[in-house]
Amino acid sequence: MISAEITLTAQFYDLDPMQVVWHGNYPRYLEQARCALLDHIGYNYPEMEASGYLWPIVDMRLKYVRPVRFAQTIRVSATLAEYENRLRIEYRITDAGTGEVLTKATTTQLAVEAASQELCLESPSALVERVRKLLP
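The structure corresponding to this sequence follows.
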């Protein structure tokens, strides 16, 4: 499937009082990887808006395996798992040096027609056609 990866270094302002990255910062990391994936597909938020669809996140699941600590360099990968009826992306946060899995996550987004605010039961062709061009 189609993937993208970013590399980040945990900053001091990301930490909680226990000196690990606060759990609420992980969605921000996922968002950065998701945007890299959507850029690769050619259907990031400006293209979504231009195509007449909104894509709210309706489900987000995170499994914290090991903590991320100050100055730790991590890789965040985003892989497109589903695209025909919903946009489901799977994530892995790993230590950049060792490859150890630190966090696993998924997000699910559904298409909503912007003009009518109606939920779509299948993904619009604007997304599907772009994805299919990238698949082998």
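The longest strand covers residues 73-82.
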